[in-house]
């Protein structure tokens, strides 16, 4: 399902592993920072792994009012060459030409939505049909200048059932960093083309007949703005506690959709990440 965006900073993970997210955010910086972090983290090893386990509290679906707690788990594997496999973002390759610039390409699965997913305690997507997960491709470019990191991520569906393009621009600022604690401010702005918007936020005439929602045509434009705060507490060299609070605001045609019951929503996550 399309779940709320949870912004966070992970050492390895390209995306916060809390859930299937709207692709692209401040968390995408992890994907293309693998190379620049390697010398410090891997100590000469060819492979590096990261596993995480925790919990997230957020709306069941983006735009919904029904909040619930969900378990979080991830496994990330990366090679010194830049090749990586991510439980959250699929398979890909990252490249760093110098410490400031990083780029990556990847293949993964798009999000899905079921008719039983809840917008509120009483309202589901019954009659709307299921949105199935399918293969998608993506690319990211990041630029780091001191404590500021700028990121851009583009994704596109590769099959008829997930056609659509999304572009996310992110900015992250490390407000404080020490051996005991780090605090990062995160922000992201996402735009989508008409095919993506209509699939997730539109209602066809046939869907309107089958469901409780009125017909609605969603066009291209801005989709989502997000701001967040991430705190990282190192427990030892391999283990760290990462906590995040994010506010998501739907925009444009997405916000005006009859499938949206709350244009703004919050999300919280906390998890332990172990690297070796």
TrEMBL record:
Signal peptide location: 1-18
Keyword Signal: yes
Gene Ontology CC terms: cell outer membrane
One Pfam short name: MipA
Keywords, alphabetical: Cell outer membrane, Membrane, Signal
InterPro entries attached to this UniProt entry: MipA (IPR010583)
Subcellular compartments: Cell outer membrane
Claim: RNA-binding is one of the keywords in the record: no
Family the UniProt entry places it in: Belongs to the MipA/OmpV family.
Listed name of the protein: MipA/OmpV family protein
Source organism per UniProt: Chitinibacter mangrovi
């Amino acid at each position: 399902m399309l779940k709320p965006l949870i912004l966070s900073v992970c050492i390895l993970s390209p995306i916060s592993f809390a859930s299937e997210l709207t692709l692209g955010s401040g968390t995408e910086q992890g994907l293309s920072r693998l190379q620049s972090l390697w010398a410090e983290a891997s100590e000469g090893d060819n492979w590096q792994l990261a596993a995480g386990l925790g919990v997230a509290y957020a709306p069941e679906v983006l735009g919904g009012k029904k909040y619930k707690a969900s378990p979080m788990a991830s496994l990330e594997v990366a090679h010194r060459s830049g090749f990586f496999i991510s439980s959250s973002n699929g398979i890909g390759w990252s490249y760093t030409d110098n410490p400031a610039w990083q780029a990556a390409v990847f293949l993964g699965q798009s999000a899905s939505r079921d008719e039983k997913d809840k917008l509120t305690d009483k309202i589901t997507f019954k009659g709307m049909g299921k949105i199935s997960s399918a293969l998608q491709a993506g690319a990211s470019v990041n630029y780091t200048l001191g404590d500021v990191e700028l990121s851009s991520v583009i994704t596109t569906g590769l099959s008829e059932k997930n056609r659509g393009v999304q572009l996310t621009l992110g900015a992250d600022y490390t407000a404080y960093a020490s051996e005991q604690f780090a605090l990062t401010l995160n922000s992201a702005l996402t735009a989508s083309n008409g095919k993506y918007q209509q699939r997730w936020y539109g209602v066809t005439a046939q869907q309107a007949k089958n469901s409780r929602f009125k017909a609605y045509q969603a066009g291209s434009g801005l989709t989502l703005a997000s701001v967040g705060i991430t705190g990282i507490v190192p427990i030892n060299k391999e283990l760290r506690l990462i906590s995040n609070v994010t506010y998501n605001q739907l925009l444009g045609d997405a916000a005006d959709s009859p499938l949206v019951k709350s244009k703004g929503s919050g999300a919280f996550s906390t998890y332990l990440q172990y690297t070796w």
